[in-house]
Amino acid sequence: MTFSTRVKEEITKQEIDRYSAQNELSAIIRYDAKISRNLISMTFENAAVARRVYKNLKECYNVNINITVRNQKRFRIKQIYILEIKEKGKEILESLSIMDNNKKIEMKLEYLEELEAKIAYIRGCFLVTGSMNDPSTSGYHLEFVFQTKKDAIFMQKLLLSLNLEAKVLKRANRYMTYIKSAEMISDIIRAFGAINCLFYYEDIRIYRDHKNMVNRLNNCEIANQEKTTETGLKQLEIIKYLKEHDLTNLLDEKTQIVLNYREKYPESSYAELAEIITLETDYRIGKSGINHHFIKMRNLMNTHKQKNDL
Fold it and tell me: With contact defined as beta carbons under 8 Å apart, do 130 and 142 qualify?
């Protein structure tokens, strides 16, 4: 069972009031139903979603619904569930702001003023057009797929009204409204009330975030170590030059101490070198002091080179 299916099945187990049921049905019928003058027909691959729609229609409109179960043989055998409504179609469509006088109504944000209405509408849309990646197998991704760009943009605006930023992308002959933010997807799962799926999602997210943090720290540590090693090698080259040209006697006593300890500990960082010198000699020194002495050595080398060039 995919993660999307798990979320959808957990959604369908929740009890909702008539107002939320109608807003949920509004999205489901608008985006999934085939509507003709005397017939509303919907096809579902998920039995739990089919039961949810059947129950909501019965409770909200007390309508007779024909149910057909068929085996679909595309790649693999699976059952599909067809719900058909042959009565009260006009009443249902007008009640859900889908049709008016046999003309389709464009969905607008003002039809969904309350927070509960917005969440119910998005939830219904997810049940029939949505999918969500399992966070343990790939990146974070939630999408809604629509037939028209207008519907995709409306969903984008609806999500934005809840401070959820989504993008719209054309895919083949359809349009996708999608979210990549892990935190926003988590908020949506929470709003859907799929608590078990939310716990699973958050566990995976915490694990992945921790793993990424450890990797970043390791990479930072490796980079710092490489930088320290590179710095040490450059300083050893300076020391080698000074010794080859008998220049070390021009350095003050404390700088010579730092020079000698760098030769003994070529891979140590400034902090480590300062600690060793402080512990093993009477000279208390910090990182900035170490750096100051190496500046002296480099300046002496550069001065000598310039004189020789002249």
Answer: yes
Residue with tokens 């605006």: 157
Domain hosting residue 231, numbered range: 210-309
Residues 5-48: tens digit of each pLDDT: 999 999 999 899 999 999 999 999 999 989 887 788 999 988 99
Rounded distance, CA 203 to CA 144, Å?
24
Q: 214 and 181, same structural domain?
A: no
Residue 180 banded pLDDT, cuts 50, 70, 90 = very high
**What stretches of 33-148 show up as alpha helix (H) in DSSP?**
47-61, 89-95, 115-129
Give me the number of domains the chain comprises. 2
Instruction: List helix spans (H) across 62-141.
Output: 89-95, 115-129
Same domain, 101 and 15: yes
Rounded Cα distance, 189 and 110, in Å = 24
Structural element, H or E, at residue 69 = strand 65-74
* 3-class secondary structure, 221: helix
Listed residues 165, 193, 221: the one ending a domain: 193
Distance set, CA 139 to CA 169, 179, 187, 190, 202 (Å): 17, 11, 16, 19, 14
Q: What is the mean pLDDT of residues 40-64?
A: 91
Distance separating alpha carbons of residues 34 and 91, to the nearest angstrom: 16
> Would you say how long the chain is, in residues?
310
Lowest model confidence (mean pLDDT) among 167-181, 221-235, 259-273: 221-235
Rounded Cα–Cα distance for residues 188 and 24 (Å): 15
Q: Which residues of 66-83 are buried (b: 16+ CB within 10 A; e: fewer)?
A: eeeeeeeeeeeeeebbeb
Question: Can you read off the two tokens belonging to residue 65?
Answer: 């619904």
